[in-house]
Write a structure and sequence with these properties.
With 350 residues, the chain is of the alpha+beta class. The protein has helices at 47-51, 54-67, 97-106, 121-138, 187-190, 270-280, 298-301, and strands spanning 16-21, 26-31, 37-39, 79-81, 89-92, 143-146, 151-152, 158-160, 167-168, 171-177, 194-201, 204-205, 229-230, 236-237, 248-253, 256-262, 288-290, 310-315, 319-327. The protein folds into three domains: 16-81; 89-95 and 141-327, Fumarylacetoacetate hydrolase, domain 2 (Alpha-Beta Complex); 97-139, no CATH class.
């Protein structure tokens, strides 16, 4: 285990990249484990400049960090913004063994269609875990897309939408991708195209996800309301992590630990996800790839988020998030036209 500076949650001997804001401006910066800030905006005015040629950028930033004897200001003086500018956001679906088996066992709706008559939860869970292992051996990753408008900073308030009540959390390790990624990568070469790692909370509203009026049932836009992707505060370069298997994801709601799970329970590794993305999409510098959530989300605990709640997330060596849940501002007096996806027609017709 590496020693962590409690000021930032970063490991000694590393640094993070952050986008910071004060009353005057926003800028990209190196953040040291002790909280010292080195402004890099003169060389790197945006994240495109940082991540386009990542190998060269890392060497330059590492050299700058070692040469700067003291940086004047501390990270606590600033508001952390999402650390990359206008990224594409890729999400991994069902990528932790235990979480996937729990969802297939306990979630309602279509998940229950494969339950045998009279089958208890224990037996159903065991079968679902076997299915997950088959998917790992014979299947492939699954990616969905989120919107840039869902991003907020690591300490920002998160507005809860008027529609739905099952507002849920999912703490995740997030990859920040480097420029120059080729199409059709092999997993073995994909590691070089990961620039670094950050934290994301992949929130969603459960009732908005299932749709009976469309044959494919899922409405992924339920994961992209404004503010439903708190991200950051730091991107920690992958060069500091030859192996990420010892990283642990933790999430608390109102001080109560809800998620506590190692990254090494992934069904498909980070490298497999990057390779899969390169087959299906064009990867751009600074894109975000969320790698899936471990077990312990709100649906499992039968507890959902309400205004006034606070979420804290920690991932080993990557820092911390703290977000407060608030009522959606600016929506007073306005009523949703469509609301919840509830339908009274025959879904078996046609």
């Amino acid at each position: 285990m590496r020693e962590i500076d409690p000021t930032t949650g970063l490991a000694l001997g590393t640094f993070g990249l952050s986008k910071l804001q004060d009353q005057d401006r926003s800028f990209h910066a190196i953040v040291r484990p002790n909280g010292e800030v080195i402004d890099i905006s003169d060389r790197y005015p945006n994240s495109q400049a940082i991540y386009s040629d990542w190998a060269r950028t890392f060497d330059a930033l590492n050299d700058l960090n070692s040469r700067e004897s003291h940086a004047g200001r501390n990270v606590g003086e600033f508001r952390p913004l999402p650390p990359t500018d206008y990224p594409q956001i890729f999400g991994a679906g069902s990528n932790y063994r235990k979480h996937a088996a729990e969802m297939y066992t306990y979630n309602k709706g279509d998940y229950q269609k494969s339950r045998l008559p009279g089958e208890d939860d224990e037996s159903f869970y065991k079968r679902n875990l076997e299915f997950v292992e088959q998917r790992r051996a014979k299947g492939m990753p699954f990616i969905w897309l989120a919107t840039h408008g869902s991003l907020v900073g690591a300490n920002d308030d998160v507005p809860l939408p008027q529609i739905g009540a099952n507002h849920d959390w999912e703490a995740e390790l997030c990859l920040v991708l480097a420029g120059g990624a080729p199409r059709y990568m092999d997993p073995e070469e994909a590691h070089e195209h990961i620039a670094g790692y950050t934290i994301v909370n992949d929130m969603h509203t459960g009732e908005l996800f299932s749709r009976d009026d469309i044959k494919w049932n899922a409405d992924w836009i339920a994961k992209s309301p404004p503010g439903f992707k708190p991200v950051g505060p730091y991107v920690v370069p992958r060069q500091f992590f030859p192996d990420i298997d010892d990283l642990v994801i933790k999430l608390w709601v109102n001080g109560e630990l809800k998620q506590d799970w190692p990254v090494n329970d992934m069904i498909f590794s980070s490298e497999h996800y990057v390779a899969y993305a390169s087959e299906r999409l064009k990867i751009l510098p600074g894109d975000l790839l969320m790698t899936g959530s471990p077990p312990g989300n709100g649906a499992f605990h039968n507890q959902f988020l309400v205004p006034g709640d606070t979420m804290d997330i920690e991932i080993s060596y990557l820092g911390r998030q703290r977000n407060r849940l608030v009522s959606e501002p600016g929506a007073e007096g306005r009523t949703p036209h469509y609301g919840l996806p509830i339908f009274d027609f025959d879904t078996n017709a046609a």
